[in-house]
């Protein structure tokens, strides 16, 4: 399915007056509206290839309809999102769920839709049909060299797929760990993992980055071999300048201060990328911003402040990716909400009066520090997002237009009701 430009124009014409009224109001309130709009236009969020279908839990999966059955259809779905919001111009591929069989035509399709290839993801947390050795007891940390070697080769293969598509980063997330005390020698597990990472790192193209994602628990419940940002940073530091830590919001213990983690990783030049989602209890993979939008704003404030401190480009110097599972919502509607929530938090962070905050911190004026942050958080930045979309020829209200055009009905008509997408 393809959304023609005139449908977007018709939609925008109807909503234009109301938008202009709101934009005028907020632009009068804040100092740097034009600057924020320009930054918002640059900012793109990568959509994961595994999140375009309905996700499941350990207990069941209630598939949606009209789901994409091939990588081409997944790219087409992201093309729909990108046509609606002009902020989803990237895809993060998961191998082997989405092996690009015909690289040239896939590249051409993505280019035609304005989509580039963000980090590629390896998968050694599941056994594949024809593999020789099982990952039941881990992959890169495994006690048996044969298993480690198989996992290393898989990661090298993923890099090759990424190279062919024009990607320039690999994200490695390991489920390696232990579920019972005594199961592992922690030191040995770390050293095996480091050696395996070194093999992969050695073969990383010179202009690539390697993102090491950590997770506190699950599927292993006693220890994880890359369990927190300290362990990830240790690996990344030992590996070298192309290795970075990747922060997935859901991969922390409850109440962890993620904004502080982000700040310190940026300070060390070791923050590589981000996986956005939200959670109430654990790795719930809910829509980013749906549970705790204030935390998302605080994280973005540290991102903006830390990136500015290092003269980094907000749009291009970190990997911005969504990593969520849509179990009860339409995945495409959920992704539209996700991108919107990320950009709202980003715009709020850009609003913070840094000089005033700095002065409050210097004076130990705790009350004023809170006022400065919350003034930004309580400003409605949505008209700025809308204006950025309008200028990029996207829809004033992407979700509304998605429903008005009956996109899902059309996808069901084209693809049928029973197809199940590969992924979570
Ligand atoms: Mn993740």
TrEMBL record:
<keyword id="KW-0413">Isomerase</keyword>
<dbReference type="InterPro" id="IPR036237">
    <property type="entry name" value="Xyl_isomerase-like_sf"/>
</dbReference>
<keyword id="KW-0479">Metal-binding</keyword>
<dbReference type="GO" id="GO:0016853">
    <property type="term" value="F:isomerase activity"/>
</dbReference>
<dbReference type="InterPro" id="IPR050337">
    <property type="entry name" value="L-rhamnose_isomerase"/>
</dbReference>
<feature type="coiled-coil region">
    <location>
        <begin position="16"/>
        <end position="43"/>
    </location>
</feature>
<keyword id="KW-0464">Manganese</keyword>
<keyword id="KW-0175">Coiled coil</keyword>
<protein>
    <submittedName>
        <fullName>Sugar isomerase</fullName>
    </submittedName>
</protein>
